Amino acid sequence: MKLLYLLFGFMTLLANAQENFVKINGSTNVNKFQCVNNKFKNDGGVYTFSEKNLPNIVLKVADFDCGNRMMTKDFQKILNAEKYPNMTIKFINFIKNQDGFNALVEVKMMNQSKRYNIEFDIENNKLIGRKNVKFSDFNITPPKKMGGMIVVKDDLDLIFSLATKI
């Protein structure tokens, strides 16, 4: 019986270690927000990065959760989820350097594409990357609420975590 518990614990730990997510952190003049999509998976369980096999990740905008039903609905409305249901993250190149990895990544949403150079590190078999982006990069005007009393800032922090074997 103890072996069964150990096996279950190990499988749970392994499943948690391979969780993938994309977080978008932002702020308003009143507070901060975080919207997370962790409902995507690679068919093989982990992402591989080689010259011939770079990931192309398709995220459903409806799968982002901002921790608050109204905020999630507003976020999906800002990204026009009904007309543009997917956001795509495509790795164009991926290079190992002294400190970690550099990648050229194309982010596409609402029929707008923008390329970013992003530095990645490996932590617990996860490839972690972070990039500051803006709503305006994608021709999105940051929203205002309550007659302009609450203003969403243009700056966003995009964070990737991908289970990987490198």
Automatic annotation (TrEMBL):
Keyword Membrane: no
Domain Lipid/polyisoprenoid-binding YceI-like stretches: 33-162
One Pfam family here: YceI
Keywords: Signal
The name this protein goes by in its record: YceI-like domain-containing protein
Leader peptide range in chain numbering: 1-17
